[in-house]
Amino acid sequence: MIDESRIEETVKAISFPRLSGTADERKILTLMSKKLSMLNLDLHIQDFEFSTFFGRSYPKIGFLFGFVLIVFFYLNFESILIPVLSLIILITLISTFLITRNPENIRLKRILSSANIYVKILPSEEKQEEQDTNNLNIFFFSHLDSKGQRFSILARIRAIRVWAFTSLILVVIIILKNYLFIQLALLFYGIGLIPFILNLIATILILFNTSNNLSDGAIDDASGISCVFELLNHYLEPESRLKNFNLFFIFTGAEECGTMGIRNFYKLIKDLSKESIFFFNFDSIAESIYLFPGKNHSNRVKTLYKMFLSNKMGLEIKSNPKKIYFGSHSDGYYMKRMGFDGIGIGDMDCYKYIHSINDTPDRVNYSLLKKLCEVIIDVLDSYDKQF
Q: Strands of 290-292's sheet, edge to edge?
């Protein structure tokens, strides 16, 4: 049975600042390890090191150098240094892009430590031997760390969007001004002035944004942790277990610093058949339930997504309206990129609170989390019967 009071207790117990790589994150790793050890399951801890370069420095380098290139070509400097400086910037951008293709292996700037924690529950006893052959698995993810930032997540998203769209406009203007209609250069300077100023403001906002350890992270992601922990408690009971699936309950570290936890966890599962795995990622739930099935749905995703939408519990499911992704991404987004089927679960209505001092336990709707867990159990029970 799903216990709303236990969900609330879990959220409140782990709602404290826990920036990735700090002693505070180590505190929640210790706390969750103790809670999981009390359940008499085999507890697995994957320690890893990570660099802050990818999550905190690399984006700023990219936006700053991109702006500098725009300045060079928009103002059309004639100095011989401009081609040289532009070439240096392009080489730097290409080099940093190449080394950040596997950011979990980077050892630049600050090197910190974190860990992933996970446990496994086997199917009902009569199906365990058969299950070893079929090797079907469901992964439940949530991340342990939190972070605060100088500017709200909405302000950051808007700044990135403004930078991206004004950069595109300025590239078009630069081509027209410098190469196609040179005689109308003055006119294009005037047309480009507003997007140029907006691009400058967006760049300044991005550069001056910094991470801090001031957010309690109740929504992001104590809410997700509590859901995964509550589902674990439910499936601990032999009569509640699914018959055809191994269940993994995974708590990742350093998600807020470039999704370092899931990138390291991937090393443990990269050789498994992608068809054998389906995941649910819980990330920031407070007021509403949004599902993120991703693009190009597989039949499995379509089936489970439809089952969620037609749930019998009266839980309202909102779809993901985002067509273009900006900024950093979640564990679920990374799993999708790696080719795994799954559904992200979050809440886009609570963005005004997360990554700030306003991300507190009083913002979380605990009855909503309870109903969400009940719907997941009902959907998976129905799905399990199809095998």
A: 44-51, 111-121, 246-252, 137-143, 277-283, 341-346, 290-292, 318-319
pTM: 0.90
CB 22 within 8 A of CB 147: no
Is-contact 241 121, C-beta < 8 A? yes
Radius of gyration of the chain (CA): 23
Do the beta carbons of residue 2 and residue 370 sit within 8 Å?
yes
Omega into 347 within 30° of 0, i.e. cis?
Answer: no
Q: Helix or strand or coil: residue 299?
A: helix
CA distance 178 to 173: 8
Phi, psi of 172 (to 5 degrees): -65, -45
Q: Which amino acid is at 380?
A: L
Give the number of residues written for the chain: 387
Q: Which two tokens stand for residue 293?
A: 């099935």
**Model pLDDT for residues 336-373, shown as the tens digit of each residue:** 999 999 999 999 899 889 999 999 999 999 999 999 99
Question: Do 350 and 219 meet the contact criterion of CB atoms below 8 Å apart?
Answer: yes
Helix (H, G, I), strand (E, B) or coil at 257: coil
Q: What is the pLDDT of residues 119-150, one digit of tens each?
A: 999 886 555 555 554 568 999 999 999 999 99
Could you tell me whether strands 290-292 and 341-346 are parallel, antiparallel, or unpaired per DSSP bridges? Answer: antiparallel
Q: Residue 113, class by beta-carbon neighbours within 10 Å (0-12 exposed, 13-18 middle, 19+ buried)?
A: middle
271-320: per-residue pLDDT in tens? 999 999 999 999 999 999 999 988 777 889 999 999 999 998 889 998 76
Closest CA to 350 of 292, 293, 285, 290: 285
Domain boundaries of the chain, sorted by first residue: 4-52+110-150+211-384, 56-101+152-208
The DSSP annotation for 14-72 comes to T-S---TTSHHHHHHHHHHHHHHHTTT---EEEEEEEESIIIIIHHHHHHHHHHHHHHH
3-state SS, residue 207: helix
Q: What is 4-52+110-150+211-384's CATH topology?
A: Aminopeptidase (3.40.630)
Q: What share of the chain is helix, strand, coil (3-state, %, to 5)?
A: 55, 15, 30
46 to 12, 43, 160: CA distances (angstroms): 25, 10, 34
What are the strands, taking DSSP E only, across 241-294? 246-252, 277-283, 290-292
Query: Of 130, 118, 153, 127, which is closest to residue 43 (Cα–Cα)?
Result: 118
